[in-house]
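pinned: reference chain
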Amino acid sequence: MIKTFRGKLADDEIRVFNLATNTGSTGYRITKFQVIPADPSTDNMEATIKIYKIPQATASNTIDFEDQTLIAAAYIENHDGTSAGFSNFTNAVIFDTEIFNQDISVTLAAGSGAGTSGVNFYFELELVKLDLNENTMATLKDIRNITG
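pinned: its structure tokens
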């Protein structure tokens, strides 16, 4: 089964998606992650959108794949110097297929000096039934990430 999520984030916004269950026996895996500017005709914009396995206090442009809590990142920009739209549009999306069973946070940070009118996001999560061992492992990973 696939669950889909979509929405629009403003600059420096953080949104939490409640996925945790009482038993932790439902896991999730990202299968698709896409982003598009709210106003594609906006010139001179850049933004970083990230998905984390734990709550975030701030949104930033730094992408660190050594951070075990980061499960997806997208970067979009347009710097063509005209108001003709995204003729020099860049969009990069990377996500991990790790299974998690807790809430996730989605963040948006605008690039320095290049704000956005917001960014639309869409992601799909595959629901995975976890047995007791998988449930325990996923939960322990999440606990370690929160305290570590």
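why pinned: The mean pLDDT is 82. The beta strands are 2-9, 14-17, 26-37, 45-52, 70-78, 89-95, 104-110, 119-129.
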